[in-house]
């Protein structure tokens, strides 16, 4: 695949996930009797549009994601109390369902992507054994001569059989030269190697620079959907645990902005269909999870206010809620810019 095609595929994939998110809001709003004024693919000036019922369907100039405009939902909008199709005039539980439908659609899309991969080219899953995965360039593992697929039998004389055992042993030797007993290859061609390595000292934790090995798993058509559901739940739990460790300070947060995500997708597109759609699956899970975080301006923040209203049967002051959403939006844009400039672009300059 050429770089141009890979870039187009990456942009379309992310845009499609965002459009699916907005489609969740749209379908739930229509199901609840709300009036949807516009469903746009992309942002900016409208290039092409048609009307079906009360909704204008549009394709806009910047084809990056999209949005849904529901009557009576915009901050400060003048809403007629008699307008039964306005978002603001609906019961709190219906508004809750409309907001929740966006992340739910990303979750459903992730399940279907996982099922499709399992039933076709396969879906990679973490290998629980003590095998070496992808190497990080320039790190001790690459310098020592390790290769993806190597099985590590012992670390400094201590036998290891599982990935968790391997990580634990390596983390115990920051900055100290140790020897890895490595099995390379299978069957009669297998080699036994003793490779010296010095883990980097990362605040008292040894790091060598390789990821967990993974294996390609396929399922029949009947089992693919159930397994896709289970693997998506496992991916969701893994991402939630990683966020928890980052927020608690137990693990350094490695954030990627739009540039980093696009770069990873382009790299995945070059590596093949399976790798590319596995990344799309991971991003779809992340979109579902991130949008549920209780942060103003995100769906999760809106759900908090609606949950309060459902429990207390009192609406939060509209000005207070709108102000908090505005502050949250500005903070998220600032974080996005910071991650892009000091994360994505800094990594690009460092190469």
Short structural description:
The protein is α+β, with helices and mostly antiparallel strands.
| Anisotropy-based shape | elongated
Kindly report the spatial arrangement of strands forming the biggest sheet: 6-5-7-8
- State the helix count: 9
Strand % is 15-25%
**What's the mean pLDDT score?**
89
Number of domains: 2
Biggest sheet layout: 4 strands, antiparallel
GO biological process, one term: proteolysis
Family: Belongs to the peptidase M50B family.
Pfam families: PDZ_6 (PF17820), Peptidase_M50 (PF02163)
Keywords: Hydrolase, Membrane, Metalloprotease, Protease, Transmembrane, Transmembrane helix, Zinc
Characterise this structure.
The model has no long low-confidence stretch (mean pLDDT 89). The longest helix is centred in the C-terminal third of the chain and has 32 residues, at 318-349. The chain is an alpha+beta fold and 351 residues long. The chain has helices at 3-31, 92-119, 140-144, 163-171, 221-248, 258-271, 273-290, 299-312, 318-349; strands at residues 36-52, 55-70, 123-126, 132-135, 151-155, 158-159, 178-184, 191-197, 200-202, 205-207, 210-212, 214-217. The chain has two domains: 91-123 and 217-351, no CATH class; 132-212, PDZ domain (Pdz3 Domain, Roll), CATH 2.30.42.10. Strands 6-5-7-8 form a four-stranded antiparallel β-sheet. A two-stranded antiparallel sheet has the order 1-2.
């Amino acid at each position: 695949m050429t770089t141009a095609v890979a870039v187009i595929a990456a942009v379309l994939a992310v845009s499609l996930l965002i459009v699916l998110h907005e489609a969740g809001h749209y379908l739930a709003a229509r199901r609840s009797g709300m009036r949807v004024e516009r469903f746009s693919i992309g942002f900016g000036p409208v290039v092409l549009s048609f009307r079906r019922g009360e909704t204008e369907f549009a394709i806009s100039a910047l084809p990056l994601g999209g949005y849904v405009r529901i009557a009576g939902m915009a901050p400060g909008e003048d809403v007629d109390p008699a307008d039964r199709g306005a978002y603001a005039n609906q019961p709190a539980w219906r508004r809750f369902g409309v907001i929740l439908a966006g992340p739910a659609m990303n979750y459903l899309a992730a399940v279907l992507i996982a099922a499709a991969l399992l039933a076709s080219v396969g879906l990679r899953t973490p290998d629980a054994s003590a095998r070496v995965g992808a190497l990080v360039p320039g790190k001790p593992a690459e310098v020592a001569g390790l290769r993806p697929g190597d099985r590590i039998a012992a670390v400094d004389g201590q036998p290891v059989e599982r990935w968790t055992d391997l990580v634990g042993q390596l983390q115990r030797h920051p900055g100290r030269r140790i020897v890895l007993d490595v099995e390379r290859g299978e069957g009669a061609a297998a080699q036994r190697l003793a490779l010296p390595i010095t883990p980097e000292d990362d605040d008292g934790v040894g790091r060598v620079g390789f990821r967990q090995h993974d294996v390609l798993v396929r399922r029949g058509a009947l089992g693919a959907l159930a397994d896709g559901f289970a693997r998506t739940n496992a991916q969701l739990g893994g991402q939630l645990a990683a966020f928890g460790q980052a927020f608690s300070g137990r693990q350094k947060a490695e954030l990627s902005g739009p540039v980093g995500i696009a770069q990873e997708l382009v790299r995945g597109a070059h590596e093949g269909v399976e790798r590319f759609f596995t990344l799309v699956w991971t991003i779809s899970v992340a979109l579902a999870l991130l949008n549920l975080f209780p942060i103003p301006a995100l769906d999760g923040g809106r759900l908090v206010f609606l949950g309060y209203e459902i429990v207390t049967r009192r609406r939060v002051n509209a000005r207070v809620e709108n102000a908090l959403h505005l502050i949250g939006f500005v903070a998220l844009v600032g974080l996005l810019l910071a991650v892009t400039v000091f994360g994505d672009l800094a990594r690009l300059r460092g190469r």
